[in-house]
Each structure stands twice: as structure tokens, then as C-alpha cells.
From TrEMBL:
The lineage of its organism: Bacteria, Pseudomonadati, Myxococcota, Myxococcia, Myxococcales. It comes from the Bacteria. Negative regulator of class I heat shock genes (grpE-dnaK-dnaJ and groELS operons). Prevents heat-shock induction of these operons. Residues 106-325 form the Heat-inducible transcription repressor HrcA C-terminal domain. Gene3D superfamilies: 3.30.450.40, Heat-inducible transcription repressor hrca homolog, domain 3, Winged helix-like DNA-binding domain superfamily/Winged helix DNA-binding domain. This is Heat-inducible transcription repressor HrcA. The keyword Zinc-finger does not apply. Keywords: Repressor, Stress response, Transcription, Transcription regulation. Belongs to the HrcA family. The gene is hrcA. It comes from Pendulispora brunnea. HAMAP family: HrcA.
Amino acid sequence: MSELSARAKQILYAAITEFVATGEPVGSRTLSKKCGIELSPASIRNVLSDLEEAGYLQQPHTSAGRVPTDRAFRLFIDALMEVRALSQEEHARIRARFEEMTPGHNMMRETGRFLSELTGAVAVVVSPRLEALTLKQLRFLRTNPGELLAVLVMSNGSVQNRFISAQVSDAELTRIHNLLDDVTDGRTLGDLRDFFARKLATERIQQDQLRRRAFSLAEAAVSETPPTEADVVIEGQSKLFDRPEFSDAAGMKQLVSAFDDRERLLRLLDATMAAKGPTVMVGQEAGELGGGQLAIVRAPFLDHGRTVGTIGIIGPTRMDYPKVVPLVEATASAMTEYMDRSSGGGSGSGSMK
């Protein structure tokens, strides 16, 4: 079908918003009475028939009204909907919640719970891979003779500890810490692995005893941190089981299968890493996830300008996109601010210095 007419777009928009609100097939009489369309039911019915022929609507039963297809939702998201602007109170609530959060791994779960509360849907958070996080601070603590405890504080507040065999005096440790503060600033764990290996291979570092010692200790600390896979945190799953689309046994089975297949979820959410803002996958765009009846609204969050994780919402295709999209975007933005704030700008300052 060629470009939809203004009338066809108006009727399609009305059919989608009515279906999102009720979950019931939409008929011409409903649109005529409730949606302010100044056309007779017969005229509306003709347009609905054209939209069905073009693949934007489908009729579950001969005598029933029509429901939007994935193609209709895609057009709605890309061209028809008006995203609702968040109020100052909503922005303040989101910021306040992140200011209250305690750094560490549970922050991801707290974020998921909060986003689920905001949207009334299932929230998913892909935690940052450790090597993608900025190192906030690296300190060595003397423990037993000939042994140091390396303490790595990451930008999300998580802490990694490992023991390293080394004989170092307190005075030498102070000089090592000061030197490392200058070179670790703003670098990720993955970057630092490459940086220290590269520097230690140069003749200049080999001739500088302090730098060689400092970089050797640092390389041991970051290299003993194995590359990690991202973790998928899911919160609010019960919110979907009450939806009519999944109320029967088959629907519940599809949901359980969708949330159990975390590798697929991770692939779908990772696909947003290159995006600069929120993106939406509708129905079959997410493959067979949930039998093709689910949609994902997702947005990346950053750490010092690098995309390190993803926040998203999973719900039925008849999701309230104008409400959900800005909430996901604002939460991802607040998470980015939290990551940057937690790392303290990578200055290396703190109580352990």
C-alpha cells in the first residue's frame, strides 16, 4: 500500500490507542462513538478494511473487530505517537531514587525494581561487564609478609579483591599509588590490561625501576580479574501473568520460557549498545520471544561516555509506549549520571588513598 492518507492514519491511531486501553478488538462503531472521528461507522469500516488489506490490522474472528499488527505498532512508534513529556516531579523522583541507592551489584536489582514500579511492567537490566567499567581506584594493602591485597574499586561501586605476592615497603607503596593514580584515570579494566602489558614491553619502562614495579603490580591486579559475562536482572515478572494475553496455560508457558532464556534476552538487549537513545522491538522483531506477543523498550546507560549496560521494559505489544519510552530513557540517563558520579571523575581520591 502506498503512503497512508491522513484519514487512514487518524483511524489507525485511534484503533491502536483503543486496543492498548482495552485489549479488545476494535470495531467501527466504537471508533465512531469514542474517538471523535466524524465519519459514519460504514465509512470507518471501509478504512479499517483497507488497513487490514495493507497489513496494519487483523481480524481474530469474522464477526469481531480488528486488532493492530506488529506493522501497525511499528508505524505508531516511528511516526504517529506523541511521547509524553515527564513532569518535573517525575524527574525529581527518579533522580532522588538513584541518589539513595547504595553502590554495588544490588544497585542493578534496585534499578530494575524501581523501573518496574514506574511502568507497571517487567523491567530488565543488563549489568556492565567488569572489563567495560572504569576503574575508580586501585590500592595495594600489605597483609602477610611477601603478600599484598589488591583492591579494585569500580565505577559502579563494586569492589574486586585479589592477593599478589610481592615485597614492598610502605614508602614505596605510597609512591606506587601516586604514580598509578595518574595513569588509571578514566580507563576501563579492559583498557588497563592492554595499557600495562604494552608499557611493560618498552625499554623505557624497563629502565625505570619505580614505574616497572608499579606497572608490574598493576598488571597482576587487573590481569587476574577474569573477563565476565553480563548478567541479566529481571524484576516484576508477576505483572505480566495478570495480562489477558498470557492468562491461559499456553500464554504462561510462553512467558516462563521467555524469561528463562536469558541468553536470548541478553542478545536482544545487547543490540541496543550502539544506539544513543531508546529503541523499541515489537512482536516478531524480538523473534519468538513470548510467542511473538511481547515488546521490548530499551535504552543504554554509559560510564564516562562508554556504553556499558542496558535498561529495558518487557511487556505485551499493546504497551503504553508514549508513557513507557520516556520513563526508560529517563531511568537510563539517571543510571549514566550515577555511574559517572560514583567514579568521582576517575580522580583516584578517596578514603583508601
